[in-house]
Amino acid sequence: MAAHDHAPPAPGPYLQTVSGRWVNPFDPDPEQLDIGDIARALANQCRFGGHCRVFYSVAQHSVIVSELVEERGGDVEDAFAALMHDAGEAYLGDMPHPLKHRSPLGAAFKAAEDHLEQALREHFAIKAGVPEIKRADRALLACARRAFSAETWHWPELEGVQPLDLELTAWSPDEAAQAFIARYEDLDAKRSA
């Protein structure tokens, strides 16, 4: 019987994924981490904690960051790491940056997220420490804020960041999930070549 065909080993903080797997994000079993589940969960999550004019998914954001890293000279491992940089949010959700980095709740969340990200890095062989990811992520954040939110006050995390010269159009969750999987498969094939 496959690992995802049965229930968790005991009651606990398990999430049932769309494929029927069970994941404890605080103590993840690598066999339960699935790229299809990640793609769908990220496609169903809205950036900015939902505070935007249209639904703009974490999956779309991740695909664009991956493409930016590649366009800026990153190799296939860098682009793959960029695609997967928010994969933990598939299991823990997305906590907006100001809460994650400037609140007591964020400190506890960040500890759990770091542990989960380590498991994801090991399971999917994700390269760590790609500096271009943060630069691309911040530039896209500034661009997405302009396109989907409001620029009524200064965000410290965007200090000195220039928005991309990019026209963003929000994708539906289905489009975002499909684009994420297509990008994953393309990069994974290049990594295996």
How is this fold's topology laid out?
Elements: E1 15-16, E2 22-23, H1 35-43, H2 58-71, H3 76-83, H4 89-92, H5 97-101, H6 104-124, H7 131-148, H8 173-192
Helix pairs in contact: 1-8, 2-3, 2-7, 2-8, 3-8
Overview of the structural elements:
The chain has 193 residues and is mainly α. It has a single domain, classed as Hypothetical protein af1432, CATH 1.10.3210.10. Helices cover 51% and strands 2% of the residues. Helix 2 packs antiparallel against helix 3, helix 2 packs across helix 7 and helix 3 packs antiparallel against helix 8. The longest helix is centred in the middle third of the chain and has 21 residues. The protein is globular and about 50 Å long. The two termini are 31 Å apart. The model has no long low-confidence stretch (mean pLDDT 91).
CATH class equals Mainly Alpha
User: Would you tell me which CATH topology applies?
Assistant: Hypothetical protein af1432
N-to-C CA distance: 31 Å
CATH architecture: Orthogonal Bundle
H/E series, N to C?
Answer: EEHHHHHHHH
Structural class: mainly alpha
Average pLDDT works out at 91
The largest pleated sheet is described as:
2 strands, antiparallel
In total, the number of strands is 2
Stretches where pLDDT is under 50 for at least 5 consecutive residues are: none
Q: Report the principal-axis shape.
A: globular
Percent helix among the residues?
Answer: 40-55%
- Treating each run of at least 4 consecutive H or I residues as one helix, how many helices? 8
Strand order of the largest sheet: 1-2
Number of domains: 1
Give me the Rg, rounded: 17 Å
Q: State the fourth-level CATH superfamily.
A: Hypothetical protein af1432
